[in-house]
Amino acid sequence: MAVPSVQLPSGAKMPVLGLGTWKSKPGEVTEAVKAAIDAGYRHIDCAFVYGNENEVGAGLKAKFDEGVIKREDIFITSKIWNTFHHPDDVEGAVRKSLTGLGVDYLDLYLIHWPMAYKRGPEMFPKDADGKFIREEIPFTDTWKALEACVEDGLLKNIGLSNFNSKQIQAVIDIAKVKPSVLQVECHPYLNQKQLLQFAQEKGLVFTAYSPLGSPDRPWAKPEDPSIMEDPKLKPIADKYGKSVAQVLIRWGVQRDTIVIPKSVTPARIRQNLDVFDFALTDEEMVVIDGFNIPYRACHLDWVNFMPDWPFHEPF
């Protein structure tokens, strides 16, 4: 099944549905990537901090070696982690991801979060009291170093993840290479209507991560809202002979957003792709939009003392 694509300002085509790889356990991701490519996925979303780019790379290599895909057939995204924001560390971080993934360029590379953590080998640097240690590095300096990686051919497109509207504008104001993509949490309990409109007005393609509400996030509590269990979605899913997950993915696609559900189960990987043979009505889209609480699953409240924590702003 061919997945529709959107064109980025560079001319690159980015498939509107991709495989997310966050929270996949060691040993699961290689097979998930292979299953996804066999099912027709041509977009894989990665990040250095997920700790599994070597496994993603093994899955890609298997499919390159089998001749199922060539490098230019697949769109690969990765992200720079918070400890690598210093301009001197940026190219090295890019090259670490390239090595892990076994490729010589990335189609898209994002600043994962606007906050800079203390430089060094520790991914989650904390002081003696267990408080995260920040570093004074403007994300605009990180952006300029990423632009140099575009000029060198290591990166085809660059963008932002988890940035608010003011932070996006700050990057646009200094950018020689404009950000092409914004990736943020987005599902009906957090419909991101204002941020989506802002991003689209600025010419950014909007990618929705955790489109199913990230029920398996490590810090989930039993009392947290769960979009997958919302009883109002079941009748809509039943009407189309689809799952609740497929309705959620379809809702994202119909809003002109790119959706990157994560799964390691081959049957579910295939099912998540099977959303292009039905369309929600305008009325159903409005109903699902109305679920907005808003509820943010990936809040990173433990670093909300940092000035660049993005959720200080309304959107």
TrEMBL record:
Residues given in the record as substrate binding sites: 112
Record domain NADP-dependent oxidoreductase: where: 17-292
E.C. numbers: 1.1.1.2
Catalytic activity: a primary alcohol + NADP(+) = an aldehyde + NADPH + H(+); S-nitroso-CoA + NADPH + H(+) = sulfinamide-CoA + NADP(+); S-nitrosoglutathione + NADPH + H(+) = S-(hydroxysulfenamide)glutathione + NADP(+)
Active site: 50
SUPFAM superfamilies (UniProt xref): NAD(P)-linked oxidoreductase
Keyword check for Cell wall biogenesis/degradation: no
UniProt keyword list: NADP, Oxidoreductase
Family: Belongs to the aldo/keto reductase family.
InterPro entries (UniProt xref): AKR, Aldo/ket_reductase_CS, NAD(P)_OxRdtase_dom_sf, NADP_OxRdtase_dom
Superkingdom: Eukaryota
Site (Lowers pKa of active site Tyr): 79
GO molecular function: alcohol dehydrogenase (NADP+) activity
Protein name: alcohol dehydrogenase (NADP(+))
Coiled-coil parts of chain: none
